[in-house]
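Q: Entry one of two.
A:
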Amino acid sequence: MKQTEIRQQGYKALIDSLGVANTLRFLQQLGVGYGDYTQERHQWLDQLTMADFQEFARQKSSEPNA
């Protein structure tokens, strides 16, 4: 199946299920992202040490809803 066919069937399924107005509202929520996630992730992840991660894990495991 081609990408255009998948997209068309997807739109049809959404419209059949949600109606036109709610399909448009749903699609508006799926805004296109921007930037380079991989590059941005490395900017903060490369600075994270094992000790930082272990402390974060300890804090999370001691939270009441963990």
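Q: Entry two of two.
A:
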Amino acid sequence: MTASDWKKMRKQLKAKPAIWKKFLKHNKPKERKFGIAAKKCENCGRFGARVGQYGLNLCRHCFRNLAVELGFEKYS
């Protein structure tokens, strides 16, 4: 199915709330409990390469941009 087909289908189902609810019940993505998709960056939403120490939950890219504002210093 192409992306345009999904958009059409979603638009048609939104007009029928009962069928839309049933569609979501059976087709929505699972809530991840473990694995790479379970944890993502709170800033940009990327998976993997996450800095979870000190409760930051940022990817390495966002951490690098925000490190000075958070009070971290670069030594070299």
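A: Comment on entry two: The helical segments are 3-14, 17-27, 60-70. The chain has two domains: 1-30, 33-76.
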